[in-house]
Design brief:
About 40% of the residues lie in helices and about 15% in strands. It contains 9 helices and 8 strands.
Length: about 210
C-alpha cells in the first residue's frame, strides 16, 4: 500500500450533527418538530436525498423536491462548520499513516462548495494528498471516476491504494477502481445495511483497526 483514501462524511469526519441540525432548522421552518439525532444519523451518508426523505418523506420524483433540496443546502451552508469532528481515534490513525511514510486523501460525493470549506476549517487540506468532491468528475461514486482522479492527482497506482467508506457505493467504487476496500462500521450505517455482503476486503469497528490491517 502506498496510500489510504477516505470517504468524508461518516468515515473520516463525523458531520451528522451539522447535517441533522440543518434538517431540523428546515423542519422548524415548515412547522415541524425537531427529529432526534439518532433518527437522522443513519441517513447522513445519503446526502440531501436521504435527509429529505427522513425529514419530509420526499423523493426526487416529488414536485417540491428540488425546491426543498435548495432550501436545505442553503441552511447547511450556514451551519456546516458548526461542529464537524474527526471520529474518535482518527487523528491518531492519520498520524500513524503519515509516520509510516504513506499518503492519504479524501474522496467524497459531497459537492466541492461544501467539501473544501469544511476540510479547510479542520486543517485537513494542508495534509491530504488530494481532496476530490463528487462534482470534480463527470460521475460520482459508485463510479470509480473520482477515486481514479485522486490517484492521478497523487501520482499513484490505484492497485496500491486502500479506500475506506461507510456506504455500499464506496466499496463498489473502490473495487471498480482496482483498490483494496474497507467498510467503516463506525459510520452512518442503517439497520437495514448488510456491509458483510458488500464484498469489501474487510470491516473495521474503529479507526485504529485500520493500522492493524495495514
Amino acid at each position: 500500500m502506498q496510500a489510504v483514501l477516505f470517504d468524508l462524511d461518516g468515515t473520516l469526519v463525523d458531520t451528522a450533527p451539522d447535517l441533522g441540525y440543518a434538517l431540523n432548522l428546515q423542519r422548524e421552518r415548515h412547522g415541524l418538530d425537531f427529529l432526534p439525532d439518532a433518527t437522522i444519523r443513519p441517513y447522513a451518508s445519503h446526502g440531501s436525498r436521504g435527509l429529505l426523505e427522513i425529514g419530509f418523506g420526499l423523493l426526487p420524483t416529488d414536485a417540491h423536491f428540488e425546491a426543498m433540496r435548495t432550501e436545505y443546502l442553503d441552511l447547511y451552508t450556514q451551519v456546516m462548520t458548526r461542529q464537524p469532528v474527526l471520529f474518535d481515534g482518527m487523528a491518531e490513525a492519520l498520524q500513524a499513516i503519515e509516520q509510516r511514510g504513506l499518503r492519504w486523501g479524501i474522496v467524497t460525493n459531497k459537492p466541492r462548495r461544501f467539501t473544501m470549506p469544511m476540510v479547510a476549517h479542520m486543517g485537513l487540506d494542508v495534509r491530504a494528498g488530494a481532496v476530490i468532491s463528487g462534482d470534480d468528475a463527470p460521475q460520482p461514486k459508485p463510479s470509480p471516476q473520482t477515486l481514479l482522479l485522486a490517484c492521478e492527482r497523487m501520482n499513484i497506482d490505484p492497485q496500491t491504494v486502500l479506500y475506506i467508506g461507510d456506504a455500499e457505493r464506496d466499496i463498489q467504487a473502490g473495487q471498480a477502481a482496482g483498490m483494496k476496500t474497507l467498510v467503516a462500521l463506525f459510520g452512518y450505517l442503517a439497520s437495514t445495511d448488510n456491509p458483510q455482503a458488500w464484498g469489501a476486503d474487510g470491516c473495521i469497528q474503529q479507526p485504529q483497526d485500520l493500522l492493524a490491517y495495514l
